[in-house]
Design brief:
The structure is a homodimer of 426-residue chains. With 426 residues, chain A is of the alpha/beta class. Chain A has 2 domains: 179 residues, FAD/NAD(P)-binding domain (3-Layer(bba) Sandwich), CATH 3.50.50; 145 residues, FAD/NAD(P)-binding domain. Chain A contains 12 helices and 25 strands. In chain A, the strands form 8 sheets. Chain A has a 5-stranded parallel beta sheet, covered by helices on one side. In chain A, helix 9 links the parallel strand 13 and strand 14. In chain A, helix 6 packs antiparallel against helix 7. The radius of gyration of chain A is 22 Å and the shape is globular. The interface between A and B is large, with 58 and 59 residues.
Amino acid sequence: MGVHIAKSTDERIVIIGGGFGGLELARRLRKANYQVVVIDKNNYHQFQPLFYQVATSGLEPSSIIFPFRKNFQKVRNFHFRLAEVDAVDTKAKQVKTSIGDIDYDHLVIAAGAGNNFFGNEQIEKYAYPMKSIKESLKLRNKILERFEEALSVNPEERGAYLTVTIAGGGPTGVELAGTLAEMKRYILPKDYPELNFDEMRIVLVEGAKHLLSAMSEKSSEKAKQYLEKLGVEVKVDTRVNDFDGKIVQLSDETTIASKTLIWAAGIKGNFLKGLPDETLGRGNRILVDEFNQVKGLENVYAIGDVAMMVTEAYPNGHPQLAQVAIQQGNLLSKNFKRKILGKSLSGFSYRNLGTMATIGRNKAVVELPKYKFYGFFAWTVWMLVHLRSILGVKNKFLVFLNWVWNYFTYNLSLRLIIKRNDDLKD
Amino acid sequence: MGVHIAKSTDERIVIIGGGFGGLELARRLRKANYQVVVIDKNNYHQFQPLFYQVATSGLEPSSIIFPFRKNFQKVRNFHFRLAEVDAVDTKAKQVKTSIGDIDYDHLVIAAGAGNNFFGNEQIEKYAYPMKSIKESLKLRNKILERFEEALSVNPEERGAYLTVTIAGGGPTGVELAGTLAEMKRYILPKDYPELNFDEMRIVLVEGAKHLLSAMSEKSSEKAKQYLEKLGVEVKVDTRVNDFDGKIVQLSDETTIASKTLIWAAGIKGNFLKGLPDETLGRGNRILVDEFNQVKGLENVYAIGDVAMMVTEAYPNGHPQLAQVAIQQGNLLSKNFKRKILGKSLSGFSYRNLGTMATIGRNKAVVELPKYKFYGFFAWTVWMLVHLRSILGVKNKFLVFLNWVWNYFTYNLSLRLIIKRNDDLKD
């Protein structure tokens, strides 16, 4: 069955995925002589860098996600289809989706990355990941439910209900740990006067020797200091080996009694059926050349987290960051336009604009190409950069408002457990 | 198994349900010499009058729900337990819940009302109700998904995907119909330029002779005129007899091809096991005397939608409205305090403060005890009254902000389909 999309005299570019890379590409093609079709399983773009604030009741999901259709109102060459992609057929030049087949002239795979549990089924079953807004909401519910549950368990079990272990000391893990530590200090004791929060441990476990491995040692050390000052137990050079829903097993042979394990320790490219085996590299990433063209395939491109462009500077591909995806989406839009004009294409070169992470109130680490800075100023820079990147004037304003509110009141008010009842219809 | 709650020298009042009635009672008992335990299956209070704005993407759920714990921070005699109530045992003076048994000295049943499908299993299976924030979110998802689905169905089926039928012409049905009509006019065509919205019908079906039966005929007529001007088809004196997920069967022998049926046509008291049969009246409501004491039971009270107090003025019990619940909760708190002082109790007498409904921009009907008014002024009164009633300064501000935003931009930005994936853990 074919999906009906209005015929066009222009060639059709089908983009799988409306994350940072796919969205940037589609936006840059607004006025190009191509028909653009974006396929996504959600009807909204997600601003992943702030998922951790949704998980910790600081922001509403709607403040950091944005409907595609609203973003492309009045864009005539744009079409959106809400669908799951099952496979691609590069011979027939079709994408097989849950709503039917979609033909393409050019295909751009911007499917992003999902959680990598490295084959550990126990961890996959019991740990809570945070790679989508749904998972972040789920985690918010779970964190809050643990405190409710803790009220009615035996005193000796209570510590395990209050304790949160985070696997992965990248920005997500660091930011989560810091926020949870501040909740423990400022908010939770007010909400739960019946619980003793000295029993609550927040443990951050990182396999590498340093937190925030994309940053310098100095910045990692600073982040670790901040976290420890807030009461987070930081374990570097340690891995989570197993988890049965109650006990976290670490590679240093110790264990943590912890009902909640948050998984921020690994990602892998979202796999698409139909691509030749030889196009797949480490971590399910699709091997591309400097023009983001998939190796050995014509008119098929991959950008962002799902793509692996091996260069001298990046022998294992670029870091899987929003910045890389956006820059690749941007360049690919230019190359598509050049193609029509018969101009030669430009190769990709990543420009690192800087990395940053926030740990808590007035506490952040920022590394720009030429400067490193920490503390209050870094924290305001972090906020400005994130506000600037959020889609939509209203969302920017709402996020800003929430931040100001939370800063002065020490009281995030979204501690809501909104679970879908099993008896509700699909 | 007993649920642990700190011992107190004061008698314990257990309140089942934190809706308008239960919440008012608990708040008024803040400084009383009672231990107060509120049991609710959600950790938040819901502001039901604005559910319809959540269902139509106008407000975020978190703007109109509020965590109980936050509301009772620093209240020493207050305890909250997140639990489902299975039954009450009035002999043992215990409430049986999903987390164990909870003892009481005084029990207040404020369990509210749920959907009444009048025994029609087909309608229960296929229609979408809107009696909780979860159901409202579910409906928001469904309304939006229908438009996405409409893009890939056969042209002759498309009308049914776009059409929305609403059963029940009370305030909920009227407000929903009006809002959907404005979405059809101002928003949806921009989001879905590929669809022809002339094919979208909005049909409001009411069994009685007039919409808004709690109001005067004049006001009902005014509401009907407003709706028809917005393009809503209003069918009074007509019932929805059946629905198979595709075709709505009406009592006048006609049918409507409509994939979406919203059920706002009936409620019944939320049933609790363990109460003697003779305490139950029509529509599962619990029969109470003028002090809201359940007939034949000591120290057991019922307030709000679940209670039925038969009086001369209200031979079928009071209307199931927030105002009644709040006034009963308020009076019961006073009677509890009088009891301690050995004073005699006051009987309940309902004071109707007025009823109102909004139909759309600048369009509302308001009936106060002495005045009736319509149009722009009524619409601003409606907004002020609702803003005033919403819990929390931040929520008031957010709702106000959203209203102002939507008023000037004609563009609600929450058109997000956030569904829980089935593969996510519970």
